[in-house]
Amino acid sequence: SANVVQWKLPKQLKEISGLALSTDERLFAHDDEQAVIYQIDWRSGSLVKAFALGEPPLRDDFEAIAIAGDDFYLITSNGVLYRTKEGANGAHVGYERIDTGLGAQCEVEGLTNDARRKLLLVACKTPRSAALKGKVAVFAWSPERQALDPSASFAVPVEGFAKQIGLQHFNPSSIEISRDGMHLWLLAGRQSALAQVSLDGQIVTAMRLPGKLHPQ
């Protein structure tokens, strides 16, 4: 059986909005209200370093982090991406602000790097447009073209999740891509549910999580 390791995070990380692994498998996390990125030693839970975007650090509603090569991305609930490079401990680094335009479509709360297709995948938590009402949406953003990629985006009726696990709503709060790059994992914190979907939005499997173990 697999060993389970649990550790308590430093007080600076009382609330983590997102986690991401670099290509060399170092773990990074970020604060929810200001653009500070932390490196955590996942073997011990200790804090390795922290660096900030801007001086003073940018303040916004940061929801997720992704790493693509040597580029670090933070995304806000309104779909604004901030791209930067890794900084040394205590550094204040420069950044590029990129408005994806997704804020008009939905409230964003998930981001992952699709390295195989060279895309960033964005999960919509709550629809804001009539076109997305009653749907679970994932949008693809191309950093190379600085544009959305409709061919890799999808929106599926929430009824599919109702059929699988009896949920009337499924609001993704996190998205991760499988190691082989062929499937997506969507986590809905509000409903304590987890789903695996194909890259075109077909539900492969879905399950409820124990609320007592996963309160948020």
What can you see in these coordinates?
There is one protein chain. This protein has 216 residues and is mainly β. The protein contains one helix and 18 strands. A five-stranded mixed β-sheet has the order 1-2-3-4-8, with no helix packed on it. Strand 12 and strand 13 form a beta hairpin.
What are the secondary-structure elements, in order, as H or E? EEEEEEEEEEEEEEHEEEE
Low-confidence stretches: none
Structure summary, number of beta strands: 18
Distance between the termini: 26 Å
What best-fitting shape do the alpha-carbon axes yield? Answer: globular
Structure classification: mainly beta
Placed side by side, the strands forming the largest sheet appear as 1-2-3-4-8
- Rounded to the nearest angstrom, the radius of gyration is 17 Å
* Sheet with the most strands, sense and barrel status: 5 strands, mixed
Query: Strand-residue fraction?
Result: over 45%
In DSSP terms, counting alpha (H) and pi (I) runs of 4 or more, how many helices? 1
Residue share in helices?
under 10%
What is the residue-averaged pLDDT?
Answer: 93
